[in-house]
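This section describes the prediction task in plain terms. A model, or a person checking by hand, is given the sequence of a single protein chain and must write out its three-dimensional structure as a string of tokens. No templates, partner chains or ligands are provided. The sample shown here is typical of the held-out split.
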Amino acid sequence: MTALKAKGVHVCGTTDEFYGSKKENNGIWVAAEYTPELFDYYSYRWMDTFGVDPKLNDVVENAGWYFEWNDPGTIMVWES
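The expected answer:
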């Protein structure tokens, strides 16, 4: 979470907090609408990374995690 915040990502908390219950795989809840320069659900410019800035996507994937959209304004980060 700290590394994402350092990259300018608006981290809201954990996925457990988002869903309101404990899950087997706890991830990170991100409010993507606050940083359109990093996330764009509808973007065609970042199709290879599914609407995530490629540099940020590389950082997350190299750390063993991946992004997954929940809705156009919310993206989750899960451990691979």
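For orientation: DSSP finds three helices and four strands in the chain.
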